[in-house]
Task: inverse folding
């Protein structure tokens, strides 16, 4: 072999080795780059997940809470109740129901009927009752001769008045439905929210709750604009 042939052989071998080395380095660099990119993506995803959860928690905590149901009296006629004194809403809370009604000018005719029927002590001493209380205009809607006849008949008057009393203190969300009264018959109240009616009345016109959820020491009172009629 000549010197020139040996030199060309060495050059070719060196070039071949260099090409293989460069190819391997390029492959390693690409793999490293892909791996780094994958790690970066994974890291980015991990970093984003807590942020998303944190954002969700933040949105939930900022959502408004459900409004609680009101415990206050409601109805257009509540404005007729005295603002202060024993006949006011605050004044009625510490008196039993017949006494509390006696201090409220809106219920003066009802109280006269209760006294006439000798029911004051019964109403004042019975614990936890609901009273459907006709306001003065409810009695005025009854023809006077009919009203006087009822007031003169103690048995009938007692039957009518005890029909307005339900055992247990009914909150507004418990008021609708058919309830057994102290008279032993039933009264059906329809409605929801702050709008309630009773179909069966003395005059035949439906009774509406005009001031409801009034609290006394032993009763929850719903003032209505008609006198209820006992069921047969």
Result:
């Amino acid at each position: 072999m000549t010197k020139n042939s040996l030199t060309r052989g060495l050059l070719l071998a060196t070039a071949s080795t260099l090409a293989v080395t460069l190819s391997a380095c390029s492959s390693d660099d690409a793999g490293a780059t892909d791996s780094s990119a994958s790690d970066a993506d994974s890291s980015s995803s991990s970093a984003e997940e807590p942020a998303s959860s944190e954002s969700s928690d933040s949105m939930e905590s900022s959502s408004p809470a459900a409004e609680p149901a009101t415990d206050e009296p409601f109805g257009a006629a509540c404005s007729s109740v005295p603002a202060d004194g024993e006949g006011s809403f605050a004044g009625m809370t510490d008196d039993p129901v017949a006494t509390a009604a006696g201090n409220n000018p809106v219920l003066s005719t009802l109280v006269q009927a209760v006294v006439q029927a000798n029911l004051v002590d019964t109403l004042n001493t019975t614990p936890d009752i609901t009273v459907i209380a006709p306001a003065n205009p409810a009695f005025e809607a009854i023809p006077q001769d009919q009203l006087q006849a009822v007031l003169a008949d103690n048995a009938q008057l007692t039957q009518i008045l005890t029909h307005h009393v339900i055992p247990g203190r009914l909150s507004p969300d418990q008021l609708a439905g058919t309830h057994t009264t102290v008279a032993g018959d039933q009264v059906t109240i329809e409605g929801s929210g702050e709008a309630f009616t009773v179909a069966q009345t003395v005059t035949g016109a439906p009774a509406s709750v005009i001031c409801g959820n009034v609290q006394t020491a032993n009763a929850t009172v719903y003032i209505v604009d008609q006198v209820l009629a006992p069921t047969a």
